[in-house]
Design a protein that fits this description.
Length: about 140
């Protein structure tokens, strides 16, 4: 089984109890789940600014009890560079931070679960295993 790596949109919806996130994750309940440390930071900022209805302690507890936090390392940065370089060659570059977050999935041999449609194209899928989370 490959790890399902959450983007911020999926993690935020999961933490907010959104039915679409719950249904999506029920379909992937047998997969191990991972959250890049940057996405955990984004969730904590969501709590700070009122986008996520949970305290930082609740977020950390929820994340660390049900998923692995994937640290952002030098290897992740290099993987993000290589991912963005491959996307650039295909004419499909993504936002730099998004490339770094998605690189965590590649680094860990996993699938990147995101609601960002820029990742759902054939050009991106040629270099990144993407799982569509479509709550809309």
């Amino acid at each position: 089984m490959t790890v399902l790596v959450f983007d911020n949109n999926l993690l935020s919806d999961y933490l907010n109890g959104v039915d679409d996130a719950r249904s999506f994750l029920e379909e992937h309940e047998r997969d191990p789940w991972g959250v890049p440390s940057i996405v955990l930071f984004e969730a904590l900022m969501g709590s700070l600014y009122g986008y996520i209805d949970a305290t930082p302690e609740e977020i950390i507890h929820s994340v660390t009890t049900s998923m692995e936090v994937l640290e952002t390392t030098r290897e992740t940065a290099t993987e993000g560079y290589e991912l963005q370089q491959a996307l650039q060659k295909r004419g499909a570059p993504v936002d730099q931070l998004d490339a770094l977050i998605a690189a965590s999935a590649r680094e860990h041999g996993g699938r990147f679960a995101t609601a960002e449609k820029q990742f759902w194209t054939d050009d991106v899928r040629a270099v990144l295993d993407v799982e569509e989370y479509d709550p809309y």
